[in-house]
Amino acid sequence: MENQCDLKKRLIDKSVEAYALALETINRITIQYRLEAFCYLICNAWELLLKAKLLKDEGKKEAIYYKGRQKEEIKRTLSLRDCLKKVIPNQNDPSRRNIERIEELRNKSVHFLINNIPRDVTGLFQAGVINYYRCLNNWFEVSLSDRFPLGMMSIVYDSSPNQWDMTDKRLQKQLGQDAVEFLTHYCAELKQELDTLQRSPKFSIGIEYKLVLTKKHGEADIGISSGSSDKEPTQIVTAPKDPSTSHPLRQKEVIGEMKSKVPEINRYDIQCVNKVYGIKSRPEYFYQGKVKGSPTQYSQAFVGWLIKEYRRDDQFFLKTREKVKN
What we know:
mainly alpha; two-stranded antiparallel ribbon
């Protein structure tokens, strides 16, 4: 009969395998089923890891099984939700809420066909990936850096702000009305909960963060360190960025940079783009301080996106104006 240590090791090994497969799948952008597959695999990875943690903490196999079952019935192990309740009892813990939100998406996504991944969902996934890495190291002193490149931890996404405009008729036709309604409601809830949790990176990491492998700490928004010794737990540090560096352009400067490409552009065009494409809710493009009277600031990436859209369609600004009028 398998002893407790062997079972714990097998749970950890299979958990890591599921985690690696989840990362490989989510970053293969040619796979149309990657959102659903990632949800299934990362939830499985978490469930196995949490069961290994219960075995370690309680010291008996019964810790991962439901109690009160009849002898003739096959023993049933705890569900992901029930494992979470035991290991992370605080129901408002950002890490726990992250897993629960991904599990919710796993349960719902089977009913829809979702070819790409919305930005808000990408942020949720990215936080879950990093949370797993941290917990695996903290709970079992297991590092994944020697198993596969840490660069795999950065999820591939498309940051075009109009890619997930749920009012776009083409997108509605592609996804179907039920999927559009679900994603609209789901992403709105994610944003609201992120604010409730004080924008904790353990719940969701916005794509305004960069996840890179670098020896220069000043270049990264998130640092992952294994500590000064083998037994010191992994540390994740978020570094705030200076908006004067990340978003150095005011509205008139954006217009100034665009004038050579679009001579007729003016302030009203920028206002229309903001409204139609929700630029003010895109931190990678827009920033405004919370102090009353703070100026609006834009990133160089925003100018790059405007130029890209204009080159793709020289009627871009005219069409944007028409959308505002309608």
